[in-house]
Design brief:
Layout: E1 5-8, E2 14-20, H1 29-38, H2 58-99, E3 105-111, E4 118-123, H3 126-142, E5 153-154
Antiparallel strand pairs: 1-2, 2-3, 3-4, 4-5
Length: about 160
Amino acid sequence: MGRGSIVISPDGRRWRTRRRWVERPVPSLRERFRRGRKEVDGEGVLDGLIVVDATEGWAFLGIAIAIGIVVVILLPLLGIALELIALLLVLVYGLFARVVLRRPWIVETVEVGNAEERVAFAVKGWRDSGAALRELRSALASTGPPERLNVGRPLATKPAGRRA
């Protein structure tokens, strides 16, 4: 379910505390893959192939092999290269935003059994977010989820002590 340290509050609940890049949760690739597999029709791979007479000659075979090499080898390699370039650009943008533009880190705690119960704070700077993380862990262990920290601003939260 993600990294972070587990802290037990005085009321016995377990909380996962961590520092994140973005406020919203990262989508689960496993769930997307499962959802995508369910939507695939039951057609076979060979259903749409056109059968060609073998007397067409060797030229057709050469063309078919060349097309096969392009489709099977070169296109996937091109796709992987483009994905790696996109990933690199996203990482560079993220580092630029954190270091130069001073975008805040998200310091959060989420109850292990109930993802709806969470407290999050936006904290600028790596050192300050580390200090906020330590403060959040100690506050959780002593009194439960805090409403405020010394550094950072609170984000949309639903602390455990305020159930509706």
